[in-house]
Input
Amino acid sequence: MALKDWFAACVHLLFPKVCVVCSLPLSAQEECVCHRCNIDLPRTNLHLKPDNAVERMFWGKTELQRATSYFYYQRGSDYREILHQLKYRGRKEVGVSMGKQMAAELQKDGFFDDIDYLIPIPLHRKKQRIRGYNQSACLADGISRVTGIPVIEKAITRQRHTETQTRKSAFDRWTNVEGIFKLHSTELFANKHILLIDDVLTTGATCVACADALVEVDNVRLSVLTLAMAE
Ligand SMILES: [Zn+2]
Output
């Protein structure tokens, strides 16, 4: 055993990593979620259904090629911890790991066919400075590692720092994000198919606002993928 591997094994023994969902120790092969929790993950499998519930949320608001969320979360569900650790506990690696996992599963069903770029929904620079990273960019990074599709981060920026969406009514969520994204390069995206990546889908308002920033691009096609959606 190489010294490096021996050292890694010792660290693992002294400080075992635990499953984000059930808190039981992970084996060396498991990244963030243990095998058992992974089997029970409430996958939506909506990418297999045409005109699915996620796509319907965008009807009449923005035209999409396809849209899906990877898993359902509920208030009080242990699986919500995946989102919590990624967003509020600095666990960037949870995003990369979940990005890789959902990409590997959805790729088999052709979800990434003809996608040219991945765009993580941008955070306002102040918010990103406080958090230290953009959780959606971590997901996009993981997806890119599996699919090879490039991630474009700086082409769209968030102009306003909006208050947290969770305490707002549905109507306020829509007006709150209207016009908050700005596109800096139209040529890059002409005739391209872009996949917008976000961590959680609630009303879809943020994705629609981001899609609105791309309307002036010639013949651009858009799709949406989020890690989770409320059940
Ligand atoms: Zn577990």
